[in-house]
Amino acid sequence: MQARRVAITGIGLISPWGGDLGDFFERLLAGESGVRHLLTDDLPRPLSTPFVSCQGFEPEVELGKPLAMMMERFAQLGTAAAFQAWAHAGLPRQPEAADAAERDTWGCIWGTALGGLSAHERGSREMWQKGRERLSPLSVVQGMNNAVNAHISIQLGLGGVSSSHTAACASSGIAIGEAFRRVRSGDADVMLTGGSDVCQSYGVVRAWEAMRVMAPGDAQTAPSACRPFSADRAGLVLGEGGAALVLEAWDHAVARGATIHGEIVGFGASCDRSHLVRPSSAGQVRALRAALADGGLEPSDIGYVNAHGTATAEGDPVEIAALREVFGDGASRLPVSATKSMHGHLLGASGAIEAVVTALALREQAVPPTAHLAGRIDPACEGVDHILQGRRRVPLQAALSNSFAFGGSNAVLALRAPPR
Q: Rounded CA gap, 108 and 118, in Å?
């Protein structure tokens, strides 16, 4: 079968600001930070760190109480985002006679780094701190990393592949790439894909603190704590969230009159094969070039790169070095921004939320900035066109979304603008 075009017909997102996709993207264009100060009453020592929370998210409202109670928060966020994307695509929740047989091949591929880790941490606390001998019978199903794709497949009647990918910060980038491949190859006409993670469990935050890559900050300084590519950057800021895309064979979408919000045209993946936590520009270059080749694109076709940009001392310069190598003389004219400066680092959900940002940038022909980069750019991160502040309206035909992970896993998605 000839390779098929793959349309984005649905987008869903649980935003730290609440609101809809339009509100989310307008806040990004304005450079508004969703970072706040997280202060807990944990023992033996409270957590006190900059963090991005989806405070307005009400799982029982979004999902209904019976379904919400069966899920850990990462699954609630992911399933709610998936339901939004499904509705945005104009697809009914329950199979209808016209598509009941089709849904036997439709599927869900999800990405998460931590999955239901919080359920296991909570169980350990209840046993060791509270002396309980028995845990909730829901502990296993709440803690499964594949809980999101399982719930989505059940609720939407998707009878095709149902799987989850865990590759640290590249988890949902890889999940989206694999879903794209299934639609393009003809294995499925429709795939629901994305990622979700919740990073504020006590053990997770303490573990990241131990690596000394977390940005400091209090109630006053937290909003500007994450400063990718800046000479004074101090580290990453963790967050939580869920984002989802409905990918659909182009002809299938057109036949049912669906609105097309963009197109995925390429996916590149690689492994650094060198170090668990130190990134390699050579591995990233391979993924970038693979995505371009897969999409039939030249570097000159790319009008924007949503960078992985975590604001760490080692990661940022390596990514810019990879972009300089791939784009050559054109790198200095390549618009680049790191939106983690505003929505935080969602670990396994990062690739999904940043794919959403990239798709919206192409749809709206506007590119968000790297917030808090008005000062001096690190000389090691120079050589590209950093978007410093305020929205930039530019004619965009194609863009890249980068996800580079501990373990050396790299994923790059290539997207095109929707038809005008």
A: 23
Q: How confident is the model at residue 1 (pLDDT cuts 50, 70, 90)?
A: low
Pick the CATH number of 7-262 from 3.40.50.10770, 3.40.47.10, 3.90.25.10, 2.60.40.10: 3.40.47.10
How many other C-beta atoms lie within 10 A of the C-beta of residue 200? 18
Which listed residue (88, 120, 308, 386) is catalytic?
308
Name the amino acid, one letter, at 288: L
Task: Indicate the average pLDDT of the chain.
Answer: 95
* Contacts of 214 by beta carbon, 8 Å cutoff, 6+ apart: 49, 205, 208, 235, 236, 237, 238
Strand, helix or coil at 154? helix
Check residue 390 and give its pLDDT. 77
Residue position matching structure tokens 């609630």: 76
% of the chain with per-residue pLDDT over 70: 99
Q: What is the CATH number of domain 263-416?
A: 3.40.47.10
User: Other C-beta atoms within 10 Å of 39: how many?
Assistant: 13
User: Maximum CA pair distance of the chain?
Assistant: 64
User: Catalytic: 169?
Assistant: yes
Give the start-to-end residue ranges of the domains of the chain.
Answer: 7-262, 263-416
Write down the pLDDT at residue 120. Answer: 81
The residue from 345, 372, 381, 386 that is catalytic is: 345
- Catalytic annotation present for 345: yes
Q: Per-residue pLDDT for 184 more than 70?
A: yes
Task: Give yes or no: 386 in active site.
Answer: no
Which contiguous run of DSSP H or E holds residue 404?
strand 398-404
Chain segment 222-274, per-residue pLDDT in tens? 999 999 999 999 999 999 999 999 999 999 999 999 999 999 999 999 999 99
| Whether the Cβ atoms of residue 116 and residue 110 lie closer than 8 Å to each other | no
Contact assessment for residue 367 and residue 185, using Cβ atoms and an 8 Å cutoff? no
pTM: predicted TM-score of the whole model, two decimal places = 0.96
Q: Using the predicted structure, report yes or no on whether residue 65 has a pLDDT greater than 90.
A: yes
Structure tokens at 112: 């998460």
Which one of 169, 199, 226, 381 is the catalytic residue? 169
d(CA 310, CA 228): 6
Q: Strand pairing partners for 108?
A: 162, 192
